[in-house]
Amino acid sequence: MTKEYQTFQEKVAPAQALYVDQFTLIAYYIQTHDWKWKFRRHFREPDRVDEYDLTSPTGQHLVLLRNIDRWNFDLSKPEIYQVLLRSLHDAQLTSANMFLVKQVHAHADPPAIAAEVNRIRKLAADAGLQVSSLYADNTQAAITFTVGFP
User: Fold this and answer.
1) pTM here?
2) Local structure of 130: helix, strand or coil
3) Where do the structural domains in the chain lie, given as residue ranges?
């Protein structure tokens, strides 16, 4: 999953946090296993999200929010964005990048991907999140969310 990780790194600017599902956590950990990972806390129910502090060998710091209820995000489900917003509030953060490696690689043509992008933007806005950058293809998504609107 090196290609997906490199694409993610190229497509989004750094944010305060990273939001991942269980499957993508594996891909992310493979690429950052030499970082220091420290469990910080488990957020309240009904959202089952764990917060980690990550520090790279060069001193870069990042908060990782791990949704432990989702094996692989379905970006057409509103609750993905609602949980992210609540988790950002709980962590007292205002922005996060989502890294998603799609477990099922369905072939989607450009119009289907464009429709997915529009749906993501709408669902995020409905949840109270602004999308400031978004990349999606058949294998992955890299999205930057900010709480609220400018």
Assistant:
1) 0.91
2) strand
3) 2-147
